[in-house]
TrEMBL record:
This is N-acetyltransferase domain-containing protein. Gene3D superfamilies: 3.40.630.30. InterPro entries: Acyl_CoA_acyltransferase, GNAT_dom. One of its GO terms (molecular function) is acyltransferase activity, transferring groups other than amino-acyl groups. Residues 30-217 form the N-acetyltransferase domain. The lineage of its organism: Eukaryota, Fungi, Dikarya, Basidiomycota, Agaricomycotina.
Length: 245
């Protein structure tokens, strides 16, 4: 695979040909790549770690090998399709400006070691907003449909971020740097993202802090009682918003 404009600003691993998004200094050893089926054991480890599952709503609990396999094959299909779309755009529209994509070709955060090997650290999911804080089913359906119906590139689309990082690497600024790079190097120029809305459980001070460091504005706390798959009950969600300047 050759490096060319529709992949911009992705780089390619010279040995494997895998595309990646590089973080700037001082995080030069952190990259964002597509998922690999071999990530399953690391994902199971993270999803079995209370420092992580305590703050996530979606993942099954207990998190079994088949859950990791299903999730990985689903998100790998999405990133594979995005890579194929970019490859075709390079062939068919070599002189046109880079196309917009709904799905990102990269999302998995990895630490590159001195010997060139890398370590799975976490995930950044970027999707159209799902409004998990809206209790009114009818209103939620209307808002979801309106957001889904907008054409890619429409500045009115509201996007959302889901993320986690291996607890061995918490508190080093990695997620803040990774999301910052993802927003400004990929989501804004290559997905046309102009608005982002995120929800964090009200007791997830670390995640809220990440988004505040990224310039998100705290909007409200919604009192919403939910029992997570892990059995924990949460009482509220903080909503934070970001708009491109
Ligand atoms: C949230 C998460 C992604 C943050 O990743 P990270 O790389 O550790 O984040 P950063 O180091 O960039 O920033 C974390 C900030 O939160 C702060 N923080 C962490 N825990 C905190 C706590 N309990 N109270 C107050 N601040 C806290 C850190 O001090 C840091 O802020 P600082 O730079 O001002 O000191 C990671 O903790 C994680 O994976 N958590 C579990 C899953 C999760 O919560 N996902 C998000 C769902 S909304």
């Amino acid at each position: 695979m050759s490096k060319s404009s529709h992949f911009h600003p992705l780089e390619f691993n010279p040995t494997t040909g895998e595309p990646f998004l590089a973080l700037p200094a001082p995080y030069e050893n952190i990259i964002i790549t597509p998922p690999r089926l071999s990530d399953a054991p690391a994902i199971i480890l993270s999803m079995s770690d209370p420092a992580i599952y305590t703050f996530l709503e979606g993942p099954p609990f207990p998190y079994l090998p088949e859950h990791a396999d299903q999730w990985l094959s689903r998100i790998k299909q999405e990133t594979d399709a995005a890579i194929e779309t970019l490859r075709r755009a390079n062939e068919e529209k070599p002189d046109e400006p880079p196309i917009f994509l709904e799905q990102s070709p990269v999302r998995i955060i990895r630490e590159v070691r001195d010997d060139g090997s890398d370590l799975f650290l976490g995930d950044i999911m970027f999707v159209r907003e799902r409004y998990p804080d809206l209790d009114d089913k009818e209103l939620k359906e209307t808002v979801l449909q309106r957001n889904a119906a907008r054409d890619l590139g429409d500045p009115e689309i509201v996007w959302c971020i889901g993320d986690f990082l291996a607890s061995s690497h918490h508190g080093k600024g990695i997620m803040t740097a990774a999301i910052k790079t993802f927003i400004y190097e990929w989501a804004v120029p290559r997905m046309g993202v102009r608005q982002i809305r995120v929800e964090t459980f009200s007791d997830n001070a670390g995640s809220r802090r990440v988004f505040e460091k990224l310039g998100f504005t705290y909007e409200k706390t919604v009192a919403i009682r939910k029992t997570l798959n892990s059995g924990r009950t949460i009482d509220g969600m903080d909503v934070l918003c970001w708009e491109a300047k």
